[in-house]
Each structure stands twice: as C-alpha cells, then as structure tokens.
C-alpha cells in the first residue's frame, strides 16, 4: 500500500476493503490494514473518522487491536460508546481488556459506559483481566481456550471446537486443556498429538505421557512466563489461579510482543528514558520524561564539576590538565557502559545469576584492568609527546588504570546489587555509573597531578 | 537443582537421569538438564567428561542443542567423532547444522570427519544449511516438516505423521504444508483447521480459504521472517527456494531466540561492544573486542581535547571554564543518547521508517531544544551564583542550547542516515554522536567564553 499517499486514495481503498469484507472476500491481514488506517489518521482526521464510522464492528475489532495504544485511547472521541461496545464484544478477551484499559486512561467515564453496554459475561472477564497488576501473567492472558474434561469424548469435543471456531469464539488453538469436574487443571495435549488418536476415544484413554503440564499461576511475574516459553519452546501456556483452576492461557505470539517490550524497556532505561512515555504521541509528555533524567544527569555533572573545582589552583598552574582531563573520564564512562550493559543483559537473559557475582566481577575487573594498562600506555605516550612533560604522561597513565579499574568493578557491581535488592538493574544504573567514572576520573587525574607535578 | 553444588552430587544426579532415560522415565526438560550439565562443566572437567561419555546419544542430542555455542565448539575435544556423528544424526537439522558449524569454528578437521560419518542425506542437508549466509532465513530453517500432496488422503497423511513422530523424526508440528507434484509450495493448513475435517477427505477437498500461504524465500533477510511472525502472529513459516519449492520451515520458538539475539546485538552495539564476542568464554577475546571500541573512543576523546587545547589561553585566564565545561558536553551526550536510542529502536521495530525522517528530526529537535532552554536557565543561574560572573551564566546557557540542539538533530540524523545507507544504525552511532556533542559542547562553550568574557 506504499503507493497510496493521499487521503482520497486511502479512503477509497478502505471503502473497497469494507465492501470486500462484507462479501467475505477481504484477504488483507488486519495488521496491514492497521498500518494503512494509521497513515490515513496522520493525513486527515476527517477521512479517518469517516472510515472508522463506516467500518463493520467485526472488521474494526481485528484492526483496532493491531493499532498503537494512543490510537486506542482516543477512539472514544471518534466512535459512539455503543459501537465501541460492539467492537469490544468481537475481540478476544486480552485485546478487549487492553482496549478498555487504554480508553480509561483518556476518559474513565467513557470506559465505564462502554463496559456497562457489554453483556455480563464479557464485562466480568474484562474487569477481572484489568484488575491484575501490569506485570503479572494474568494481565496478559486471554480467557478463550479449548477446554475439555477427562471423561469427554474426543470427537464430541472437536465438534464443539468446530462450532466455536465458526462463531469466531476461538482461534489460535494449539492444545486441548484438560480439567477435572472442579475446573482444576490436569494437563494439556497438543493438537499434533491429539490428531493422531482415534476420535472415538475419551481423553482419559490417552496415555498420560502425552500430556504436558506446563502452567503458571496468574499472579506470577510475566517474566516467569516468558522464561518458560523461551526455555521450553511452548506454543501456549495454561494460566491457573491460586487454587489451580484453569482461568486462561497465553499464546506464543503474545510472548513475541512481550519480549520486545521488555527489551525496549531495558534499552530505554539504560539510555535514560522510558518506554511508556516514548510511546505517547504528545511531545510534551515525551520531553517531560526525558527532562527528568537529564535533570538527574545535571546533578551528577555538577558533582563532577565540584571535584574539578577542588583543583582549580592546579589547573591554573598547568592548563594542559584541563585539556587532557575529559579523556580519562570519557574512557572510564565507555568501559563502564560496556560492562554495565553486558551484565544487565546477561542477567535479564538468565545467563548469569547472583551466584555468579564473584565470577562476573572478577571477569569484568580483569578485562577492564588489562584494557586500562593498554590505554594507559597509549595515552601516556601521547600526553608526553603532546606537552613534552614526562610526568604528565605518568599521571594520566596511572589515573587511566585507576578509572578503568573502577569502571569494570562498578559496572558489574551496580547492576548486580540493584538486582539483588529487587530493583530493575537497567533503570538509573547508567547515571550512577557515570557519576562514579567521572568523579574517580577527575579526582584521580587532578589529585595525582597535584601530588606529582606541583 | 539449586541444591546440587558438588561435582559428586551432580555426577550422581546425571547417572540417575541416564538410568531414568533408558527406562523411558526421564521427566526433566532438556533445557534444565543443559543448565545442570553446564554447572558440572564449570566445577569439574573430569566429571563433565565422564558424564558426557556415559550419556546416550539421543539424550545428549536434546541437551547439547540447549547449550551455549562455546560448549558446542569444544565438544569434539570431549567425545569421539563417531559419538558426535551419532548425536548429530539424532538432532533436528537446524540444531545439527548449528552444532557442526560451531565445531568447525574450533576444529575444522573434526567437523569434516564428523560430517563424513553421517549418512548422505543428513550430510547433504547440514552442508546446505551451513552454506547460507548468517543473516538469511535459510540459515535458521529446519528441513523437518509435515509435507502433504493435494491429492493425498488426510487419514493416510496422518498415519505417516504418527509414524514419523514415533520415530522422533518430526516434532513441533503446527501445519500440514501442501505441495504440488513438483514440490512447489501451494499453502499451509493449520492442525486446528485440519482436525475439524473428515479424515476420509483428500487435501484438495478442503476449501481453499482454509489455506494460508505465508512463505519466505530462503535467501531473504531473517529480519523479514521475524517481521512476518510478529505482524501476522504465525506459528511456523514455510521456507521456499527461488523456484518456490518447499525447502524447510522456521517455527515460532526459533523466532523468540532470534528476537532476543537481534535485541542483544542492538543493545551491545549501542554500548560499544559486540554480541558475538561477548558470548565467548575467553576473556582475551571479549577484552580484545572491547578494546577495539575503546580505541575508537580514545581517538574521539583526543579530538575533543584538541578542541579544548585551542582555548588554553582562555582557560588559563578563567579557570572556572575548566570547571564548568564538562557539564555542557555531558548534557549533550545524554540528550543525544536518548534521541539516538529511541530512533534506533523505533526503526528496528518498524514503528518509524525513512519516509518519516522529517517528522522524527522535527520532533527530536523540538524536544531537545525545549529541554535545552530549561537546563540552560538552570545551569546559567547556578554558574552565576557559583562564580559570581553574570556573563559566565550567559555563556554556559547559550552553549547548552546549542549543544542540546545538536544532540537532538544528530541523535536523529545519524541513525536515519546510516539505515538509509544500508548500515546497521546501532553500530558505531554512539561514538559518532558523542564526538559531535563533545566537540560542539566544548567548542561552543569555550568559543563563546573567548568572545564574550575576554
């Protein structure tokens, strides 16, 4: 659709799509339609509203859940509450609860009105899903799944599945999840196993070793679920409540998104910003969040300046020190960032744990120290040749070794310590680290210069 | 297994596992066994070798493919070529080709010997998979899949599937991939659809709209495949050659790993290091790669020092400039990193594209400029109060605005430009950016000071 540039072309394109959809003949994937609708929204509010209003609810349900949060947030300004309720009722429960959550961010009242127009069952499910904390497994689950009883006949259950699929109630089915008469979770059987059994059998006739029993309690951290998916190569994971009753499932495609979200958060945190605010459309909100971190950085930069200020007399008497001093700080900052980033990432991927702390710190200190000696030699020679003062070369070399040692040590210790204290090691650790490498860099360089050169 | 600390305990544990496995009674997931085997390898080379030698090939095949590359690389030093060939023959083709690739990194001759001991079919498949470039879809595929012909009977095909599953030839099946008599790919049908049809039908009797036709050519960039998985929520993707012949598939669990690999690479590149070398066991290799980037950083730091050196007379006459100058550079570096990171990430996630370049640059410049004015005011007042020189406050304020403007502008332009030129925008962009913010920061601050204060 890269050719469609004008709002007229996009509008006509969507009118055709709506026509095709009504004739059961629309072959474009909702994701691609969402991209084009977002494009139309960028160009023309008027045409965007026109198309949104024209769009059948079941088609819009598929498209809307592919659109970014800020578009969902303001959908109540474009469509009537009744239509949004209709759209919501066509969505899977995880998408529906996300939509209502997003709308409530913008207009709590609209969200409540929409909820009140849903049937009791939908309403209850959405309210339950939205009552979970953001970071627990339950917040990401859907309640739609293929549930069967042990004494159920396979063929009967498949007829039920067929009906539910035809009514668009179920999709993306990978397992039959088996429960007892109290809805307690027993295990799952993959369709790839199930399809090989005689459908006249009951589920209880299937040998137990064909069942898998991966499940997670709804209140557990979503990261635990992500780990189960990545370690055990799951397609879907059963979610149970604290009484082991089956309440939902998470499918692998949700996990792709969660992995990318977690990684984005980590990357942004290390760079001193925040994934949630960066997804806002408002430049004010993005800028305000970044200003917060820049403010913290300003304080640490002033702290470094105070350290430099202690040595103003030294600098006055040898201005070459002012010329060279950023080099030591910069090299420390860079070496520290390397260590910090690798440590944070390997902890996040579960490749290293607190037990390995000693080993990691040792490794990082050795690497940093060896590089410290190499660059100490290089910069020592350069400083000597540049300013023709041999002892200046010695001073910068020694302070380079000291600062790269601290870079390696603190680059490893800071995230390990934060993680151990239950704090996300990506958030704020960069600022703490550069404070250390700046202060140590300036202090060691100017302090040694005062001792040795003057 | 967190309690098993000594090598004796771990050795006994694995002897029990081997016993259980032989009795078809091992319920521990290979991933968890791989973790424990890695632990044993860390503690005792001797016990590790003893267990590796004892382990039945089919069990070891499952465990070894969950172990890190560097363990696979040196497995030829632990086991005989014959046993490794045996293990390789039990693996899925993607895991087998990865193992041979890893062994060849360490000992090309051993890899060739092992290949020569495989049967011709296995050997040919592994050689084909390893002939792909690292970053194309074909390099990640497996050749094992459930392939059916249009005129084939569903029940017949399922009997074949059952047999292949019982022989451990097939696993993780989500679709039947349908081909014509020339092996040309026609489409796929999900098991969740297939299970609902009367198994007495032929595939050609299934209505065509139940088929999906997602496929990708083996020579396409793996990132394209990742995008198809994340956009279209696929479970598996058919891989075809340039003549549309079906040659393999990629499954969703591989995509989890690839997403995490891509994200790790991005994160490490931005921090001035490299994901591949960080995965090495040797501190020498890790340190050497980091030294490379530190060397580049040293050059840019010296460049910044040269800029400072231009103004040594100015600093000599007002040493407060030396005290304050790192603040401007540091704030520019931080604001620039925020912009750079967000731009790189949003391009990688496909949220923004080259077409949006103007919009992104505008957004980033506005945010940076507004923050520039805020922090210019703050630092201007602080500098005035600290040194009691009003014009010093004016100088630092103006240079803060200038540097945060460049930070926003170059933080957005550098990655967009690199991406447009086909260069990975995460690699090297941080160093280029901090060179800009250092040089602009020092030059504007000291230059303005020379003009205004002296």
Automatic annotation (TrEMBL), chains A, B:
Which parts of the chain span the membrane according to its record?
291-311, 317-344, 365-387, 393-418, 430-453
Which keywords belong to this entry?
Cell membrane, Magnesium, Membrane, Metal-binding, Transmembrane, Transmembrane helix, Transport
Q: Quick check: keyword Cell division in the entry?
A: no
Which SMART domains is this protein grouped with? MgtE_N
Pfam families named among the record's database cross-references: CBS (PF00571), MgtE (PF01769), MgtE_N (PF03448)
The answer to keyword Membrane applying to this record is yes
Membrane protein topology class: Multi-pass membrane protein
Annotated CDD domains: CBS_pair_Mg_transporter (cd04606)
Task: Report one GO cellular component.
Answer: plasma membrane
The listed locations are:
Cell membrane; Membrane
- Provide the GO MF annotations for this entry: magnesium ion transmembrane transporter activity; metal ion binding
Q: What does this protein do?
A: Acts as a magnesium transporter.
Q: Outline the subunit composition.
A: Homodimer.
- Give the family per the record: Belongs to the SLC41A transporter family.
- Write the protein's name: Magnesium transporter MgtE
Native species: Malaciobacter pacificus
